[in-house]
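Researcher: We plan to redesign the surface later, but first we want a full-length starting point. Tokens attached.
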């Protein structure tokens, strides 16, 4: 649970709030008031992605949790007169998808009127959040915005004012002056002060200011970007070791984990040794990195989706003052797209994220899964990455990423077996988040 939400639950009488939420529509204008008990008949159940699917089972959802899972397809009436039935007897049912690397409030191609107005930016972000949830993405870690609006959208979703994924937000990207994270703002964007990390004291301050503003996670850029020379395999880190350690130590002291953007080997290993929880992109990890991943229980988030996107627009992204030449950029695209397979083969805990935002379709996460499989990762392992492993990386292994009694009822369904054909995840037929049906396969639902 995000700290903000936890705070609210202690501030209010939890039982009273739950009753209010369950009795009232969720504000999207499309959802109906929900029965307290929802009985999901699942034809095929991937309760633990990575392990074989089970046959017909009935998932009993009470409030926001899974209460029980029974073998066979049982009638709703068995669980109370008001219990609502969801018939997924022909579908494949699995945990909601989790995306660990998104930027919900950074739109590469948004018009100036949008990026100049926090209100417009917040509405754009809210609209994208709704489309993501509808596509089966029930949890997102947002790894940085230029505006702070992701905090407002996160809290509005948690309060039931907006439909959207559970959101863990990093807020401002912590980077050195002139570093990768400080260069994401667009011309005309609302005035914005980057979280600058230039020396130990300022790195501590940047992290503490972010935590004060509401960051659930800290995003740190330790190398240049994939399209820059500073993101080369042999490029030195973009920060000093004491800066990275100071940022990680300040985050740890505040109970936050760190997501480190790193492409080059030295940057990856510096970040891992300092104790970050996830390496973002991680293109050029080596044998020492593999050892450090294991030693520190860290995860890799390869983001093949954005590499594929850059690869389809080499002329747009190649060159420039800090950029790679076209053939170098093309090589990075190939290296980045093979990262999921190399990581999986090396035994690095393989998580999943896209680097997508409102400029992309809401099926970016499903396409990342497809890119894992295209690279050679078994489909079952790709689905495990997007569910169980991502939940572990978030520190939510006991609540998200699997379908078991006591877990949050974040459930999706598709019409075909996603282990046989990963593309099935691009057409999600049913979405439930926290016990609320967001999208149902049948008109009568
Ligand atoms: Zn990113």
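Model: Full-length starting sequence:
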């Amino acid at each position: 649970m995000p700290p903000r939400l936890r705070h609210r639950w202690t501030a209010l009488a939890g039982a009273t709030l739950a009753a209010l939420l369950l009795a009232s529509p969720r504000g999207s204008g499309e959802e109906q008031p929900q029965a307290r008990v929802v009985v999901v008949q699942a034809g095929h159940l991937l309760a633990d992605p990575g392990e074989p699917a089970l046959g017909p089972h009935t998932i009993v959802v009470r409030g926001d949790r899974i209460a029980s899972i029974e073998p066979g397809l049982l009638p709703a009436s068995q669980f109370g007169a008001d219990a609502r039935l969801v018939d997924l007897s022909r579908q494949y049912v699995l945990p909601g998808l989790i995306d660990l690397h998104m930027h919900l409030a950074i739109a590469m191609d948004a018009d100036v009127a949008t990026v100049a107005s926090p209100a417009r930016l917040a509405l754009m972000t809210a609209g994208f959040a709704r489309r993501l949830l509808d596509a089966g993405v029930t949890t997102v870690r947002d790894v940085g915005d230029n505006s702070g609006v992701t905090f407002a959208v996160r809290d509005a979703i948690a309060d039931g004012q907006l439909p959207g994924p559970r959101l863990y937000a990093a807020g401002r990207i912590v980077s050195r002056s002139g570093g990768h994270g400080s260069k994401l703002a667009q011309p005309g964007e609302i005035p914005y002060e980057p979280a600058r990390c230039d020396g130990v004291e300022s790195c501590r301050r940047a992290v503490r200011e972010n935590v004060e503003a509401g960051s659930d996670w800290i995003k740190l850029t330790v190398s240049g970007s994939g399209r820059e020379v500073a993101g080369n395999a042999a490029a030195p880190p973009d920060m000093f070791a004491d800066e990275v350690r100071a940022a990680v130590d300040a985050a740890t002291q505040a109970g936050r984990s760190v997501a480190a953007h790193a492409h080059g080997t030295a940057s990856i290993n510096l970040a891992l040794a300092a104790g970050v929880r996830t390496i973002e992109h991680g293109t050029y990890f080596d044998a020492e990195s593999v050892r450090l991943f294991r030693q520190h229980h860290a995860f890799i988030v390869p983001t093949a989706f954005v590499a594929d996107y850059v690869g389809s627009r080499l002329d747009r992204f190649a060159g420039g003052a800090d950029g790679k030449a076209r053939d170098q950029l093309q090589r990075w695209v190939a290296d980045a797209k093979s990262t999921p397979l190399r990581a999986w083969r090396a035994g690095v805990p393989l998580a999943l994220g896209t680097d997508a935002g409102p400029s992309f379709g809401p099926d970016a996460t499903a396409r990342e899964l497809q890119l894992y499989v295209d690279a050679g990762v078994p489909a079952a392992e790709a689905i495990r990455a997007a569910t169980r492993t991502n939940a572990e990386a978030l520190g939510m292994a006991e609540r998200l990423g699997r379908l078991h009694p006591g877990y949050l009822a974040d459930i999706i369904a598709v019409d075909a077996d996603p282990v046989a054909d990963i593309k099935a995840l691009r057409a999600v037929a049913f979405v439930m988040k926290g016990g609320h049906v967001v999208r149902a396969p049948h008109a009568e639902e």
